[in-house]
UniProtKB/TrEMBL annotation:
HAMAP family: Gly_tRNA_synth_beta. It holds the Pfam family tRNA_synt_2f. The keyword Cytoplasm applies. This is Glycine--tRNA ligase beta subunit. Belongs to the class-II aminoacyl-tRNA synthetase family. Residues 578-676 form the DALR anticodon binding domain. Keywords: Aminoacyl-tRNA synthetase, ATP-binding, Cytoplasm, Ligase, Nucleotide-binding, Protein biosynthesis. Tetramer of two alpha and two beta subunits. The gene is glyS.
């Protein structure tokens, strides 16, 4: 039969509603599996005032099972005269048997006493209450509550518990509430309370009699479709981000999508401020025209079907108007002062106690942005100007009220001040990429400023020894490091992490206390390489083969990793990797000083002569490949060495008695190894 459990509560936290429901279902499935109960699909339901599960085709009885109880080993179960020891007798009493009834089992560790007990399966209704309790106890609830005089704790006060197995009520007490058939409907529509006769009636009966759509994804789909239809009527497109859709779906039990408007004069305010107000504070969906310009309309979701929807619409328009008016006031006030005039106020904003103020940071960013711009061949003056103005919008009224607009407001105000588009864009894009998968800065000037912003933070925080530990990273240094690496790699910028770190550290003067700060930064960022490339699907030994050379240019590292990955697809790769391991082992076991040159007169064997000839040819041929970073082409050329290398190891003994010949052969192997080490240490593959 179908099993239903519904927990009726006060309004649950909207941002965690889906997580709670999915965890409830996962926990209950675990309980079912532990009890070896056969069942069909497990469906979860969630609305602001309830969590529910429905298990289809749940067996009415637990299957019988056999429990094997192993006793002591025979050596410990009987004494020298063959009489049972106290340990054996105690075990037998615990099993409810005599020693004579015990069986014996043979294992790889010897023979043991054992007893197989048949356990009859219990009726499912006897198990369900405890299973629900266990599933609820494992929900991810950071701050449980108590209510009234009850000692029980849950995420919100609970009022009803319904557990049905088919048409039968499952007895039991959950959260101090007796299971019954009463289900509560919508607060203001439908029947406030009604009884349910059969688990199969859920959730349809709740929708028909209680005006509650318990199916979370159904509510979300209704909201999304109706919002899209409403936007189409306005010749626009609704801003339906999934996070906001999820939150709104968690706030309503009977979604009714309505359209409202605001005064067009507010469109003179930067759209981002209006959007943050509508989405963040009011949970409204903004609407854009086909050119991406904000329209003076918004879409919202009511939790009630009003007889006069216009009243609901007017109420929401009245609520949002003062918030938009605030945004307008802040922006117009901010326009009265140029960005550059705000620089002195940054002296009152602390960056970090040991590292000084945001004004100090801005002066460093000005220099570091110019340094990077020069390295990547973009406009140095624009980069320095953008670096100087990067943080000025932090002391504007708009950013103070809407922190999410930092950078964005800087761009608007910079353009109003007559700054170049490149400078204004760089001010906004200094924070990109903000998260994994976020887009990168769009111009080279922006790239210079964004890298500078992140490298300054890395240099400062590492410079005072506050490295990230475990999952604690209060200054988001991992994100900053990945951001720098992504920009350099994906934009193919000729930047060296060691150079960047050295210059960034030098700008702090004597404020830094960590003597190894530069090495720490480079090592930390190389560690980010490992994690980042593994996420992209590159094998760990490929990454390690490149990291063995300690490359500090990210774009160069990227080229090497991709070259080694391609090399591994070649038929010669496995043999050459083994040969390099062999070369590496031979060279590591000698204490002799190995010459950089191979003496042709000492090449007495034909196989070593042929290998030396090919190594010499490729050394000259591949020099420009290595200089230009054409590592993939170089490794393809080096694959041709497979035949002479195989012939060498088949016919030539390296560690011969003749010292001169031995050292000459070691010199040849060293030159061979160095050729491959121009790309990576493939002996690690």
């Amino acid at each position: 039969k179908t099993f239903l459990v519904e927990i009726g509560t006060e309004e649950l936290p909207p941002k965690s509603l889906r997580t709670l429901a999915e965890s409830f279902a996962a926990n209950f499935i675990e309980q079912l599996d532990n009890a070896k109960l056969e069942h069909g699909e497990v469906l979860w339901y969630a609305s602001p005032r309830r969590l529910a599960l429905k298990v289809l085709n749940l067996n009415d009885t637990q299957p019988d099972s056999q429990i094997v109880k192993r006793g002591p080993a025979l050596s410990a179960a009987f004494d020298a005269n063959g009489n049972p020891t106290k340990a054996a007798e105690g075990w037998a009493r615990g099993c409810g048997i005599s020693i004579d009834q015990a069986q014996r089992i043979q294992t790889d560790k010897g023979e043991w006493l054992s007893y197989t007990q048949n356990q009859k399966g219990q009726p499912v209704v006897n198990l369900l209450c405890d299973m629900v309790k266990n599933a609820l106890s494992k929900l991810p609830i950071p701050k449980p509550m108590r209510w009234a005089a009850r000692q029980v704790e849950f995420i919100r006060p609970s009022h009803t518990v319904t557990m049905l197995y088919g048409e039968d009520l499952v007895p039991g007490t959950i959260l101090d509430i007796e299971s019954n058939r009463v289900i509560r409907g919508h607060r203001f529509m439908g029947e406030q309370e009604f009884t349910i006769d059969n688990a199969d009636q859920y959730p349809d009966i709740l929708e028909q009699r209680g005006n509650v759509i318990a199916d979370y994804d159904k509510r979300k789909a209704i909201i999304k479709q109706q919002a899209q239809d409403a936007a189409t009527k306005l010749n626009g497109k609704a801003d339906l981000t999934d996070s906001l859709l999820e939150e709104v779906s968690s706030l309503v039990e009977w979604p009714v999508v309505l359209t409202a408007k605001f005064e067009e004069r507010f469109l003179a305010v930067p759209a981002e401020s209006l959007v943050y107000t509508m989405k963040g504070d009011q949970k409204y969906f903004p609407v854009y025209d086909k050119q991406g310009k904000l329209l003076p309309n918004f879409i919202f979701v009511a939790n009630i079907e009003s007889k006069d929807p216009q009243v609901v619409i007017s109420g929401n328009e009245k609520v949002v108007r003062p918030r938009l008016a605030d945004a307008e006031f802040f922006y117009q006030t901010d326009l009265k002062q140029r960005l550059e005039e705000r620089l002195p106020r940054l002296e009152t904003v602390l960056f970090q106690q040991q590292l000084g103020t945001v004004k100090d940071k801005v002066l460093r960013l000005e220099a570091l942005s110019g340094f990077i711009a020069d390295k990547i061949g973009t406009n140095v003056e624009q980069a320095k100007r953008a670096g100087k103005l990067t943080k000025c919008d932090l002391v504007t009224n708009t950013v103070f009220e809407f922190p999410e607009t930092q950078g964005i407001m800087g761009r608007y105000l910079a353009l109003k001040d007559g700054e170049s588009v490149e400078v204004a864009t760089a001010i906004e894009e200094q924070y990109k990429p903000r998260f994994a998968g976020d887009e990168l800065p769009s111009t080279y000037v922006s790239c210079a400023v964004s890298i500078a912003e992140k490298m300054d933070t890395l240099a400062g925080i590492f410079g005072i020894g506050q490295h990230p530990k475990g999952d604690k990273d209060p200054f988001a240094l991992r994100r900053a490091a990945i951001g720098v690496l992504r920009i350099i790699v994906e934009k193919a910028l000729p930047l060296d992490l060691a150079d960047l770190s050295t210059y960034a550290v030098s700008l702090y003067g004597d404020k830094l206390t960590n003597k190894n700060v530069i090495e720490d930064i480079v090592s930390f960022m190389q560690g980010r390489f490992r994690a980042w490339y593994q996420e992209q699907g590159f094998t760990i030994d490929t990454i390690q083969a490149v990291l063995a050379l300690n490359p500090t240019k990210p774009a160069d590292f990227d080229a090497r990793v991709k070259a080694v990955t391609h090399f591994r697809t070649l038929s010669e790769a496995s043999s050459l990797a083994e040969a390099n391991k062999r070369v590496s082992n031979i060279l590591s076991k000698t204490d002799s000083v190995i010459s950089e040159h191979v003496n042709a007169a000492l090449l007495v064997d034909g196989a070593e002569g042929e290998l030396a000839k090919q190594v010499l040819i490729l050394t000259d041929k591949l020099a420009p490949y290595f200089n230009d970073g054409r590592y993939q082409e170089a490794l393809v050329e080096l694959a041709a060495l497979k035949t002479p290398i195989d012939a060498f190891f088949e016919n030539v003994m390296v560690m011969v008695d003749d010292e001169q010949i031995k050292l000459n052969r070691l010199a040849l192997l060293k030159k061979l190894q160095n050729l491959f080490l121009k790309v990576a240490d493939i002996s690690l593959l």
